[in-house]
C-alpha cells in the first residue's frame, strides 16, 4: 500500500469527499491487550483471562479493549496518508463511534478512511474523517465513526 503524501492545507482540501485509502493489517496480540490493560487500569477478565474467555464468552477468546482499537487510529491513518510540513497534529474530536463487533485476540484489523470535509480555521486544517476498522475475514467491522484531526501546517 502506498501512502498519499500531502504537504499543505490546500492539497488536503482537494481530497474532500473521497476515500483516502486502506491501511495495512495490524495483528492484535495478547501482549498488546495486556499492556493496554495496565496502561488504562482496565483489567476486566474478558481481556486477560484466556481460559475463562474461551469458556464463558460468546467470543471464544479474549477480546481487545474497544478503546485499544480506537487508539490505533492515528497509527493506521498515518499508513494511509503522510501529512508533511506540520507543526503538529491534534486528535480533536470523535463525533460518533459505534462498536459493531468485538476484536478477538490475534485478529488482524485495518483502517478504511474517507475524508468528509476540511475546514480552514485561521490556517489550521480541521479534517473530518469517516473511519471503519475492518476485521480480516469478517463482514462486520469492529467500529465505524467520524473523527476529526487538526493539522497545524507550517505555512
From TrEMBL:
Residues 19-127 form the MaoC-like domain. SUPFAM superfamilies: Thioesterase/thiol ester dehydrase-isomerase. InterPro entries: HotDog_dom_sf (IPR029069), MaoC-like_dom (IPR002539), NodN-like (IPR039375). Gene3D superfamilies: Hotdog Thioesterase. It comes from the Bacteria. PANTHER family: MAOC-LIKE DEHYDRATASE DOMAIN-CONTAINING PROTEIN (PTHR42993). This is MaoC family dehydratase.
Amino acid at each position: 500500500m502506498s501512502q498519499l503524501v500531502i504537504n499543505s492545507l490546500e492539497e488536503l482540501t482537494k481530497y474532500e469527499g473521497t476515500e483516502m485509502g486502506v491501511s495495512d493489517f495490524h495483528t492484535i496480540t495478547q501482549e498488546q491487550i495486556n499492556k493496554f490493560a495496565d496502561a488504562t487500569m482496565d483489567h476486566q477478565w474478558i481481556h486477560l483471562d484466556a481460559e475463562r474467555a474461551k469458556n464463558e464468552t460468546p467470543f471464544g477468546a479474549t477480546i481487545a479493549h474497544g478503546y485499544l482499537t480506537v487508539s490505533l487510529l492515528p497509527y493506521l491513518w498515518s499508513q494511509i496518508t503522510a501529512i508533511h510540513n506540520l507543526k503538529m497534529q491534534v486528535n480533536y474530536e470523535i463525533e460518533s463511534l459505534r462498536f459493531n463487533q468485538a476484536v478477538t485476540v490475534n485478529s488482524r484489523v485495518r483502517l478504511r478512511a474517507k475524508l468528509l470535509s476540511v475546514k480552514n480555521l485561521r490556517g489550521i486544517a480541521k479534517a473530518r474523517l469517516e473511519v471503519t476498522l475492518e476485521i480480516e475475514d469478517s463482514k462486520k467491522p469492529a467500529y465505524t465513526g467520524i473523527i476529526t484531526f487538526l493539522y497545524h501546517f507550517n505555512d
